[in-house]
Design brief:
Elements: H1 2-25, H2 32-36, H3 46-62, H4 65-73, H5 79-83, H6 90-103, H7 123-132, H8 139-162, H9 168-183, H10 187-214, H11 229-236, H12 241-259, E1 286-288, E2 290-293, E3 296-303, E4 317-320, E5 336-339, H13 347-355, E6 359-361, H14 366-369, E7 375-379, E8 384-387
Parallel strand pairs: 3-4, 4-5, 5-6
Antiparallel strand pairs: 1-8, 2-6, 3-7, 7-8
Helix pairs in contact: 1-9, 1-10, 3-6, 8-9
């Protein structure tokens, strides 16, 4: 896998360098917004393909009224299995099983191998699916087609603006545009490959943990995640289960304590935590952040801390602490994005640009200062979030 990831990283870096060089070559000839629009509707993005297939599943479920009602009413953890008792749900379930076969190794927080994947627990996927049921059939495909059209229009505008003279600029720009459109689409493939590998490791660890519980070495299968791989192997090679159980309890206590800590926005290599100075004054009821994806949208906020529990409905603005590929099904029917952490090239920012969603990231305390149901304005050009009703920020 190492050589494949090295190749993938090289290609991705080539795409980023091409994008940066294109900005310099076309400065003064097209707007910055046009250059940014090259990242809209990229062909071959495996995460986008996954989201579109999930949207197709929602369309199929919507065609079966009894199934749609069942998904809305049943527990997200058991909705799929209990739906197998509905004969009319068979066509949907066949497509669902194909989806899980291909994407079941993914899920929220997937970089943590101890967290269940969709194949283990599809609750977050079902919750996203339920949110999509309120959309118009085919809406996800139309939105993606619009993003593709916007990206292709940017290509044509840039190429047209580069013509003239001896044609050297045009040939260079044409090559750079092709690199941006092709290489940036591969950015998700590396993570997809890593997650497939981690899924195999996870299956092996879960199997070993189950065997350790049967033999009385561990009290619960989840205890295995409190051990290093070497310690788990040592347990099967004659290690002391009693000593390891003591380590497990101590690590659980440490884990719970660390989970309550709030990480600083900035930390130096020496451990210093400088407080960033607000350079631009904010208006009342306004939150500042980084402009991650252009455009402005007003709408109802939905604060999502756990995609397994909170349902994002069509047209709502997603307010989240962070996102990863396991969260991207929420982007299909969101109208905008606000994130507490992240920069211009973090997952949420990149996906928001590709989907054409206005986005502001790096907004301190966004999930506590914005409330679900509150109307907000997301200005992805200025990096500002405005509360349009209820109390002022910090009140």
């Amino acid at each position: 896998m190492g050589p494949l990831l090295e190749t993938h990283f090289s290609i991705l870096m080539a795409g980023m360098m091409a994008w940066g060089l294109l900005r310099k070559v076309m400065r003064g000839r097209v707007s910055e917004a046009t250059v940014r629009a090259l990242s809209r509707g990229l062909p071959g993005n495996i995460t986008t393909d996954m989201d579109l297939e999930l949207g197709d599943l929602a369309d199929r479920a919507r065609e079966i009224p009894t199934l749609a009602e069942h998904l809305r009413e049943a527990s997200a953890e058991s909705a799929i299995e209990s739906a197998r008792a509905l004969p009319e749900a068979a066509p949907f379930l066949e497509r669902w099983d194909r989806f899980i076969d291909r994407y079941g190794h993914r899920g929220p927080g997937e970089i943590d191998i101890s967290i269940p994947r969709w194949a283990d627990d599809p609750a977050s996927l079902v919750t996203s699916l339920v949110g999509m049921l309120g959309s118009e059939p085919g809406d996800h495909r139309r939105r993606h087609a619009a993003a593709v059209a916007e990206g292709e229009a940017a290509v044509e505008e840039i190429l047209a603006a580069s013509r003239g003279g001896l044609g050297l600029r045009y040939r260079l720009v044409r090559r750079l545009v092709a690199a941006v459109r092709a290489y940036l689409a591969l950015r998700e493939h590396g993570k997809f490959l890593v997650m497939q590998t981690l899924m195999r490791v996870r299956v092996a660890v879960v199997e070993a943990a189950g065997l350790a519980v049967q033999r009385g070495w561990l009290g619960h299968e989840d205890d295995a995640w409190m051990l290093t791989l070497g310690e788990l192997v040592a347990l099967f090679e004659g290690g002391d289960p009693a000593a390891m159980r003591g380590q497990i309890e101590q690590r659980r206590d440490d884990y719970a304590r660390y989970a309550r800590l709030v990480p600083p926005r900035v930390m130096t290599s020496d451990g210093e935590q400088p407080v960033p100075r607000e350079v631009v004054e904010l208006a009342p009821k306004e939150l500042g952040g980084l402009a991650a994806s252009a455009g402005t949208v007003e709408g109802v906020a939905r604060v999502v801390l756990d995609p397994r529990e909170q349902v994002l409905h069509a047209g709502e603005i997603l307010v989240a602490p962070f996102t990863d590929p396991g969260w991207t099904p929420l982007f299909i029917h969101a109208s905008g994005l606000v994130m507490e952490v992240g920069g211009l090239m973090t997952h949420g920012s990149v996906v928001a640009r590709e989907y054409g969603l206005p986005a502001v990231v790096g907004v301190d305390g966004a999930t506590t200062r914005i409330r679900t149901g509150q109307r907000i304005r997301v200005d992805g050009d200025r990096g500002r979030v405005t509360l349009l009703d209820e109390q002022e920020v910090g009140a």
